[in-house]
Design a protein that fits this description.
The protein is α+β, with helices and mostly antiparallel strands. The protein has a domain at about 5-145: Elongation Factor Tu (Ef-tu), domain 3 (Beta Barrel). About 15% of the residues lie in helices and about 30% in strands. Strand 7 and strand 8 (about 115-125) form a beta hairpin. It starts with a strand and ends with a helix.
Length: about 200
């Protein structure tokens, strides 16, 4: 089976549009992972230091006005949009430009497998005296990596209660007082007795 491009029409309830090449000349699949250039902590997981790059796919395929039998994929329209079998090549070329002009993400079916979220990055169409009524196209695709997000609700911070604090007002330094409110003379008597003892030694 040749390479097939499955694209949405943009209309609700409409079947998918399918562009299926009659023949695939070449297919090239490329995928890379970039490793950090900075030192990594010993024992840390590799996933923290390696970044997967989008896959890329390049192909060269033909669409002819006189193809062999090509069976369309399930849940899709005819193999090439358009109703005139004598202009299949031009219809396929128009469909490729429609996909690029509208920036449509594709589902790509290839000999390497099926891939989703694929962007048509470049189109190169060739025609010469030997190609006749054939679209000879070289296409480059690149994957769009889609990341999912998650919303997390943080707990409401609890403020410390201030009800246990007592406002003591402004305190004025003064001599200690006894529980009945009178000034205590214990400290003063102790100081006087020490002074008297020192005076007797002089």
């Amino acid at each position: 089976m040749g390479v097939a491009l499955i694209a949405p029409t943009g209309l609700a309830g409409e079947p998918l549009r399918l562009l299926q090449f009659d023949a695939t000349i070449t297919e090239a699949f490329s995928r890379t992972s970039q490793l950090t250039q900075f030192p990594a902590e010993d024992g840390s997981p590799l996933s923290d230091h390696a970044n997967l790059k989008p896959l890329s796919f390049t192909m060269r395929g033909w669409v002819s006005d006189h193809p062999i039998l090509v069976l369309p994929l399930e849940n899709a329209r005819a193999s090439v949009p358009g109703g005139n079998p004598r202009r299949r090549a031009l219809d396929a070329f128009d469909e490729l430009n429609r996909i690029m002009d509208n920036k449509i993400l594709l589902e790509l079916v290839t000999g390497f497998g099926k891939f989703v979220n694929i962007h048509l990055e470049s189109i190169r169409a060739n025609k010469d005296k030997t190609s006749g009524r054939i679209l000879d196209a070289t296409l480059t695709f690149k994957e769009l990596i889609v990341a999912s997000t998650e919303t997390v609700t943080l707990p409401t911070p609890v403020q410390a209660s201030r009800s246990g604090k007592t406002d003591l007002g402004r305190q004025v330094a003064g001599p200690p007082t006894s529980p009945d409110g009178t000034e205590s003379t214990a400290v003063a008597d102790s100081l006087l007795s020490k002074l008297a003892g020192l005076a007797g030694l002089l």
